[in-house]
Amino acid sequence: MENLTNILTIKDLLSRHGFTFSKALGQNFLINPSVCPRMAEFCGAQKGVGVIEVGPGFGVLTHELCKRADKVVSIELDKRLMPVLDETMAEHSNFKVINEDILKIDLHKLIDDEFKGMRVVVCANLPYYITSPVIMKLLEDKLPIDAITVMVQKEAAQRLCAKIGTRESSAITVAVNYYSEPNLLFHVSSGSFMPAPKVDSAVIKLDISCEPRVECKSEKMFFKVVKAAFSQRRKTVINSVSSSMGVPKADVEKALVDNDILLTARAEQLHLSDFAKIADSLYERSNKDA
User: Fold this and answer.
1) Crossing angle of helices 60-68/35-43, nearest 10°?
2) Quick one: pLDDT band at residue 26, thresholds 50, 70, 90?
3) Mean of the pLDDT values across residues 33-50?
């Protein structure tokens, strides 16, 4: 179905299906015709590739993905959109929609069942309220995917793609960089959506690394340290890690000294390798004390 970005087409769909936008589900559907083709190209949708889409809406991005990829499986929580998608995506035999919660579905099984012999990518216009949980699920599940290309709130995009070791970085910046190489692709104005949100958006791409981008003895300890360090970001790493993890300050101080990290350092000043070194030191210390 063409013209899914046309206001008259959208209003007709809304009227015939009795559909109203849900604020609770963060529903803002794209009406800018130039955005979705760019996203579909950037995400790597092409022959031999399968695409997982999160939250297809009326199918504007889905349509572009189906034109390029071998298969597109969209995961949509709102059951009210099922009959709408049956209509808007009727021409595409390589499309399937699953009425499930992306945060609860077994994505390993989905990939095994739906994309045999294909390379897989993820592409989505993510609702703002679940941006971080969805991205972290996709990364932490360690799926056999090549990349994640998503549209998110502009501020979130800047944080996710910030350079580690700068004031803009955060715990999720470190986590994303642990699993992937993030890049901010382009900005999208609020007027590109219906209804228009109060903030602008941006499209980012996370190229998944075959192995974590830094070595550490315990992934669990690494993320504990990262979370603790940023939990009180105005404090030094010694104080924030010690208080958040219940580790003696002397142990944290030794971890910094042994790895040539400034004792006055704050979380936003550390690099990926610094977090790994601190985590390894604390991990070794905890095993000695066990």
Assistant:
1) 40
2) confident
3) 97
Domain boundaries, the chain: 7-208, 219-289
CA distance 114 to 105: 14
CB 1 within 8 A of CB 12: no
Task: Assign 73 to helix, strand or coil.
Answer: strand
| Residue 116, amino acid | K
State pTM to two decimals. 0.93
Q: Which of 54, 289, 48 is nearest to 148 (CA)?
A: 54
Terminal CA-CA length for the chain? 63
d(CA 251, CA 169): 25
Beta bridge partners of 152: 202
Structure tokens at 246: 């219940």
Report d(CA 229, CA 287) in Å as an integer: 21
User: For the structural domain made of 219-289, what CATH number should be given?
Assistant: 1.10.8.100
* Spatial distance between the Cα atoms of 120 and 125, rounded to a whole number of angstroms: 17
Q: Could you tell me what percent of the chain has a pLDDT over 90?
A: 87
Task: Kindly report the average pLDDT of the chain as a whole number.
Answer: 95
Type and span of the H or E element at 53: strand 49-54
Q: At 145, phi and psi to the nearest 5?
A: -125, 155
**How many C-beta neighbours within 10 Å does residue 219 have?**
13
Measured in degrees and rounded to the nearest 5, phi and psi for residue 210 equal -65, -35
Q: Which CATH class is domain 7-208?
A: alpha beta
Q: Which of 217, 116, 213 is nearest to 174 (CA)?
A: 213
Residue 155's Cβ-count burial label (10 Å; 0-12, 13-18, 19+) is middle
Report the distance separating Cα 49 and Cα 214, nearest Å: 28
For residues 237 and 267, the answer to whether their CB atoms sit within 8 Å is yes
Give the model's pLDDT for residue 77. Answer: 95
Contact 196, 23 (CB under 8 A): no
